[in-house]
Specification:
Blueprint lengths: L35 H17 L8 E2 L1 H8 L3 H14 L2 E4 L3 E4 L5 H50 L6 H22 L4 H18 L9 H16 L3 H23 L3
Helix pairs in contact: 1-3, 2-3, 4-5, 4-6, 4-7, 4-8, 5-6, 7-8
Length: 260
């Protein structure tokens, strides 16, 4: 991702509504597909990266006209992208105040989120194993292979910006894709919808990690344990492996929230 030159806030704008980190956004209008949905997806990901990296302060105002100008797109995809972020919980919309970065999760909210993830993902893992059988195992194999490759590339490019930023996001995407394989093979579309609602909250947890991607090897090893369990075609063992993984994610999230 190529950074753009620093852009100053427009004259007469409220400084509290502007964060200098928006200068890290790259224009996406020029040469981009004209399809509004594609543009809103790019807007969504551009802002998501800033939010999850902690480059936008909690409570910072996200002005549609400013983001539209910086990203070189019309207000429509910006508005759609922000609406998607609102649905994830990363962004809130306040009457007469517009969109703002959501406040950080409290310790209690983190525990509630991890409880929800455990309930959903442990059950989904068992359902996917029972419904998917060997097809599920093969899909997990492919997802884990892509995750290994992403982690390797991340460490190869660790000191090479901006390649490192792209590689870090590839790791995050590969991690999420592994879990999506589980949801997809439950053969229950409502589980996927519920999981999608939790994804944004999972990104909020990542905001606490000082180095962005800090648990790549741990997650990889835990996913490998889930795959090993899946190969037995025993739904109970798959559930146990997923429960152990979510427990470790919870512990890491607590540590990120309170590094002391």
């Amino acid at each position: 991702m190529t950074s753009t030159p620093s852009i100053k806030p427009p004259e007469g704008s409220d400084d509290s509504s502007w964060d200098s980190s928006t200068s890290s956004l790259s224009p996406i209008g020029k040469g981009a597909l004209s399809d509004t949905h594609m543009l809103s997806e790019q807007v969504y990901r551009s802002i998501l990266q800033l939010v999850t990296r902690g480059q936008l302060q909690h409570g910072a105002r996200l002005r549609i006209e400013v983001l539209s100008r910086v990203l070189n797109v019309s207000p429509t995809p910006v508005r759609e992208g922000l609406a998607r972020l609102e649905a994830t919980g990363l962004v809130v919309h306040l009457p007469h105040k517009g969109f703002r970065i959501a406040p950080p999760l409290t310790a209690e909210q983190l525990e509630h989120l991890m409880d929800a993830r455990e309930l959903l993902e442990v059950g989904a893992a068992g359902a996917a194993s029972a419904a998917g059988g060997q097809i599920f195992v093969d899909a997990l194999e492919r997802a884990l292979s892509k995750q290994r490759e992403a982690v390797l590339m991340f460490h190869v490019n660790r000191d090479a910006a901006p390649k490192n930023e792209d590689a870090a996001w590839a790791v995050i995407d590969a991690d999420l894709d592994f879990h999506h394989v589980v949801f997809e093979h439950t053969e229950n579309p409502f589980i996927g919808l519920m999981a999608g609602a939790l994804n944004g909250q999972a990104h909020r947890v990542r905001q606490y990690a000082e180095k962005g991607v800090s648990d790549d090897f741990e997650a990889l090893n835990e996913h490998d344990a889930i795959l090993v369990a899946a190969r037995t075609l025993d739904p109970v063992r798959v559930q146990e492996a997923m429960r152990a993984h979510i427990h470790q994610v919870r512990l890491r999230a607590r540590a990120d929230m309170d590094p002391a």
